[in-house]
Sequence to fold (261 residues):
Amino acid sequence: MIEMQSVSKVFRTDVVETHALKAFSLRIEAHEFVAITGPSGSGKTTFLNVAGLLEEFTSGKYLLDGKDVSGLKDDARSRIRNEKIGFIFQSFNLIPDLNIYDNVEVPLHYRGFTSAERRKRVTAALERVGLAQRMKHIPAQLSGGQQQRAAIARALAGDPRVILADEPTGNLDTTMSGQIMDLLEEINSGGTTILMVTHNPELAMRAHRHIEIVDGALAASRPGNRGVPEASAAAVASGAGALARAGATATIKAGAAGQPS
Ligand code: ADP
Ligand code: MG
Fold:
C-alpha cells in the first residue's frame, strides 16, 4: 500500500538545511492500522505529508498502491491524493463559517461528482460518524469530539484507501479521544488503511503496529494489540489465492501469521 525506500526530505532556507527524513524506509500493507510516535520535531508530520502527497520528497523512492509517485507533477499528485487519501488533523481544520454538511462536501467539489452523488456521499459519511442530526450546525456549535467526527466524515466522503491522521486526539479529553479511536478502529475494520500519529501510548497500543520515528528515521516497529489486519488474516487462513480474489493488493510475506509484518 505504502512503500518508501530510503526517502529523504530536506527543508532548505537561506540559512538552514533541515533533514526532516533521513533514508526513511517503511512498508505498510493494505488494511493495516499503524500508530506513529516519536519526539516533537522528529519528522512524524513530514512523513505523513510525504505519504499523503501533500509534500514532495528530496530523494529516494515511494510506491503508493504499487505506483511510483516520485517526481509526479502537481496536478497528477493532487488527483491521486484526492482519490486515495483522507487527512485528519489535530485542530480539525474545518471551515468556521460553513456548516458541517458543506464542510464535508468541500473536497468532493474537486472530484467532478454530480450534485446527487455528492449529497449521497455527504449524507452517508455524516451518518457513519453519528452526526446526521447536526449537519446544519457550524463547527463552533459542536464539541471538539463532534468537530473531529465531522473532519473524519469529510475524509470518509471521498472513500479513501488510506486515512492519515496527525495527532487526531491531541485536542480532546480522554473520553472523546477514546470515542475517536473507536471510530477509527471501526473504519479500519471496513478495510481502510490508517496511519495515526499520536502522543498517547495507550492509543498507540491499540493499533496493529506501533512505529517510532526518531530524528527523521524509523527507530522501532513493533506489533500492537489489534492482532492481524483483516487481509493478512484471510491470507493466512486460506492461502494467498483468497487474497488475490478479494482484490487486495497487500503482499503477505511468509511468516505473517500472528503478526503484521
Ligand atoms: P514532528 O511532526 O515529529 O513534530 P515535523 O515533521 O513537523 O516533526 O518536523 C521535522 C523537522 O522538520 C523539524 O526540525 C521541523 O522544524 C522541520 N520542518 C518541518 N516543516 C518545515 C518547513 N516547512 N520548513 C522548514 N523546516 C520544517
Ligand atoms: Mg507533527
Observations:
- The two ends are 13 Å apart (CA to CA).
- Strands lie at 2-12, 17-28, 33-37, 59-64, 67-68, 85-89, 162-166, 193-197, 209-214, 217-223.
- Residues 44-45 surround magnesium ion (ligand 2) (CB under 6 Å).
